[in-house]
């Protein structure tokens, strides 16, 4: 679908979900953010967003910010929020939700089954839990090449892996500025820009 997901109203996609009995609703993090902001501007819109039959929302495309976890769970606590992150070039997900696991605000629940995902520093060494670094995935030799060496898929995401198994993606590392050793990614820039008046 290439059109405006808010046409003819911001309730258009939830209405389709209800009409067709959708249980698993895959949507972009940006859409969830836009719905939250639309509800903040017009609280009566919430009554049109009937998501009672939806069991899981899979969020992808960009990091789902903690405020959007709060928004979803404050209005639809029965829904499992399952953020996912992967890549078209690998035709898979590196990290995804797990219906048996705990959903933590701002985190993706676990690594994908069979995905040897790690977070490394710029020297190619794994970082400690909770420390941010580059998302990499170990694999057998193939046609891929990487700055981190053979058998390492470097995806270009800036993320952290937590001791309980959750992960957080903060933005693209290949769009990250590094003035004076302080990393500033697109997620940091968007967070400031979105709070500015137009």
TrEMBL record:
Coiled coil: none annotated. InterPro entries: ANL_N_sf (IPR042099). GO terms for molecular function: acetoacetate-CoA ligase activity. It comes from the Eukaryota. This is Uncharacterized protein. It comes from Perkinsus olseni (Perkinsus atlanticus).
